[in-house]
Amino acid sequence: MNDFFKKTDLTRSVAEKIIDETLLNKDDGELYLQNSINENIILDDGKIKNTNFTKTYGMGFRGVSEDVTAYCHTNSIDKSSLVDASKNIKSTLRSFKSYKHNNSIRRTNEKLYSDHNPIGAKSLKEKINLLNTVDKYLRSKSNLIKQVTASISTEKKNIEIIKTGGLTLSDSQPLTSFKISLIMKKGAKNTQGSYATGGRLTFDSYVNENNWKHVCDEAFRQAEMNLDARKAPAGEMDVVLNNGWSGVLLHEALGHTLEGDFLYKKTSVFHDQIGNKIGNENITVVDEGNISGRRGSLNMDDEGEKTQRNVLIENGKLIKFMHDRLSAKLTKNIPTGNGRRENYMFAPMPRMTNTFMMNGKSTREEMIKSVKKGIYVDALGGGSVDIVSGQFNFTVNNAWLIENGRLIMPIEGATLIGSGPEVIKKIEMIGNDLKLDNGFGTCGKSGQLVPVGLGIPSCKVLMTVGGTKT
Amino acid sequence: MLKEKKELENLASYCIDASTKLATTNCAVKVKNVISETVNLRNKKIENSERSDILSINITTYINKKKSSTQFTYIDKENTNLMIEKCVESTKLLPDNKFNSLPNKKLLAKNFEDLLLFDATTISNEKKLEYLKEVEDAALSNKLISQTNGSSFKQSKSNFIVANSDGLLSGYKKSEFSSFTDLVAKKNGSGMERDYYYDSKAYLKDIIKAKDLGNNAAKLAIRKLNPKKTKTESIPIIFEKRISKNILGILSSAISGSSFARGSSFLKKKMNNQIFPKSINIIDDPLIKKSIYSMPFDKEGVESKKIYLVKNGILENIILDSYYAKMLNKESNGRASGLSNAFFVPGNKSYKDLFDCGKKLILITDIMGAFGNATTGEFSCGATGVYYEKDFSYPINNFTLGGKIENIFNNIILADDLEFKYSKNCPTALVTEGLVVGGY
């Protein structure tokens, strides 16, 4: 437990007094305090280039009246800074006369991760030795490997939220990440592969010999496969997505459009579709922030609300959006534990946690067999979405051409595009092999990055593939 | 209040002294204070206001060829000492890396010119709101604009000092005023479309007129309404300026010191070779006055100079900091902070002339995803645009654009309409062949 008031002229009781005085005639708000440390060690080009140790320390003070938010943040946790922030909030919100103050929070005692510090789990020396071993292991696989980047990033984030009446909530969030990327070269051709693992469990749960070798092997497999890959086709065709990380498609194509801020702003393509059938009846989509140890999991969100399992789409029917306290209030819903922020420099907003689709009945083999001409996506890259038009795009890292139900050859350079409302109607088959990703997703929204988890069973869907072969 | 130079210098000097006492051979420090105030409006109503005041310290310590760094925002003597100790302890444990060092002393900026990067003017939140109301009034007076997705005005002022144990101690103030609006257009029988417009200037008086901001964004969003799908074909492509700047973006990734030194660029073997047609010249000029992207020196303190990246189509210079310059047996060219005001020298065709190149073509007005991969040299992204055929044109969306980056470089023709708006600037650009549109 962190004591944010130990080394400052600001005492807890004075802080509580200022919070009460600032927020009592506002609808909502809180003081958010953060103290995080992060260690990042990167091996690149056979050398440890640098190690980096970051301490993020500061506070953000928020007041909300109706749909207006005033937010002030600073790295100095002291009395004068808090008083300044209070003045600023009061000035912005001065025109709101009536209010309905709500400081009730849904809490839980459930712990999804232990209070450990992954940074101290191994000494710096041990981590450097490990990265060197990883480098050697990968380079021994093939002399076509030209470049290896391996990194270990560990973080411990301590947060405390103080609401009116001295209501205090705190959490301590560990996070470990181990990443590999490599470049192979054959003739004039460069290919890339990358893979990673991580989450909120102990360091050793992710970075053990079994695991790191698996991460290396997968990155190598991706890069090697593309050495002999041909040009991807272009045009609309059947796409079979493999299970696990392909869930990023669900995250972009549907997840973002179901975030509550886009509901009250009426800018989501689905804002007027609650209760309607938006996809075929095999489709059930869930966002679940309280899965033990996952990268996207949190004991409480960044407003102090407990995280939970939220069924967003059930048997093709749109059930609910994900909310923070503001979007819940404005749309007359209950907060869903999705109010998140990157750090104290930002006010919270509705964000995903771990988002996935439930199992269907098919097998991946059946899907591939059913395709006359299409592609099988073995490793998706990243993507993005325009929530207003619903259009999204993805890069494909690895894929195979399918002809007459058979995998023909690896292809490269493909992009997948589509629009959320159309694609959900075009999911034709859903596999029985739901898998969550390996723990390396990071989602960006309005300049804020947060760790997320995702998952999907294998799926067959009609989409536009952007290749270079007409 | 923005922290004054002296206070930042004292902090920087303290850090250097403290690290020298702990037997480091060298040390570099950056101390930065940024204060910003932002107001957001949505549908003519205030949505939020934000104030940020951050002081941060970034320290890199060297023990001979070992190097480690730390950043922190908890700034009191005790924590600063603790962070430096921790950094030095880490440094000791690291293996030597012969490329680690401070920049060559001879290259450090000594007497640098005032580039007029700081405007002391402030704009109150009330004035920001007035401006934004005018933006949204103008935008919403367009019948097809159904609502705004948010408009914002941000004032940001910063002061920083870079220092090192070789005697570097320099810094300057910067200001940035930026305005932005994001609009939703809707027409009966069609879905919603959105687009945005923004401006960002060092001086408040240079910021775009509120009305123009609103109307420009409105035009862009309305242009996207009632899109059609398009078929898969190979066709000439014209990139609008806000998209063509990405051609310089992908070039800059491919000619970064790290991608050359590490061998990960598809252009790695092209130094002093023809990579564009002879007519193409690309310059990076960090010394343009009043540009928010200008810098008299980079983050290592190395003096910035105007250079040609590409001259008569030939790759002449790459982007170098001290570390990668050393790996490549070169000297830093003051680009540890990347490019500043990079631009394609404009061509001699008018915007209109570009459209006469063929019977049909596609104007790209928006893209989604990365504009190419600097390692593989492949290019593939999602796109939105306008299809031009004979005498008529219509909006299209939901298609992909793919090819090789080389194909873009080799077949590029530039218009004469360059303007400086981004850190990488390109006139409207026609790519005559080599790109494939993926649709139905």
Runs of chain B in which pLDDT lies below 50 for 5 or more consecutive residues are none
Indicate the mean pLDDT of chain B.
95
What is the C-alpha radius of gyration of chain B, as a whole number of Å? 24 Å
Rg value of chain A: 24 Å
Largest interface, counted by CB within 8 Å of the partner chain's CB: A-B, 78 and 79 residues
Task: Please work out how many helical segments of chain A DSSP would assign.
Answer: 10
Along the chain, the helix and strand elements of chain B come as HEEEHHEEEHEEHHEEEHEHEEEHEEEE
CATH class of the largest domain in chain B: Alpha Beta
Assign an overall shape of chain A: globular
Structural class of chain A: alpha+beta
CATH architecture of the largest domain in chain B: 2-Layer Sandwich
Instruction: Provide mean pLDDT of chain A, rounded.
Output: 94
Total separate domains of chain A: 2
Strand order of the largest sheet of chain B: 7-19-15-14-13-8-18-16
What name does the CATH topology of the largest domain in chain B carry? Answer: PmbA/TldD fold
Span between termini of chain A: 60 Å
For the secondary structure, the number of strands of chain A is 23
* Spatial shape of chain B: globular
Task: Break the fold down into its secondary structure elements and pairings.
The complex is a heterodimer of chains A (470) and B (440).
Chain A: H1 12-23, E1 28-44, E2 47-65, E3 68-74, H2 79-92, H3 124-139, E4 145-162, E5 168-186, E6 189-199, H4 203-206, H5 209-227, E7 230-231, E8 235-241, H6 247-255, H7 260-264, E9 285-288, E10 309-314, E11 317-318, H8 325-330, E12 339-340, E13 349-350, E14 354-357, H9 364-369, E15 373-385, E16 391-403, E17 406-412, E18 415-419, H10 420-425, E19 427-430, E20 435-436, E21 441-445, E22 448-456, E23 459-466
Parallel strand pairs in A: 7-17, 8-15, 14-22
Antiparallel strand pairs in A: 1-2, 1-4, 2-3, 4-5, 5-6, 8-23, 9-10, 9-14, 10-11, 12-13, 15-16, 16-17, 16-18, 18-23, 19-23, 20-22, 21-22
Helix pairs in contact in A: 1-2
Chain B: H1 5-21, E1 26-42, E2 45-63, E3 66-72, H2 77-93, H3 125-140, E4 145-164, E5 169-186, E6 192-201, H4 210-223, E7 233-234, E8 237-239, H5 241-254, H6 257-261, E9 282-284, E10 307-311, E11 314-315, H7 322-327, E12 342-344, H8 351-354, E13 360-368, E14 378-389, E15 392-404, H9 405-410, E16 412-414, E17 424-425, E18 429-431, E19 435-438
Parallel strand pairs in B: 8-13, 12-17
Antiparallel strand pairs in B: 1-2, 1-4, 2-3, 4-5, 5-6, 7-19, 8-18, 9-10, 9-12, 10-11, 13-14, 14-15, 15-19, 16-18
Helix pairs in contact in B: 3-4
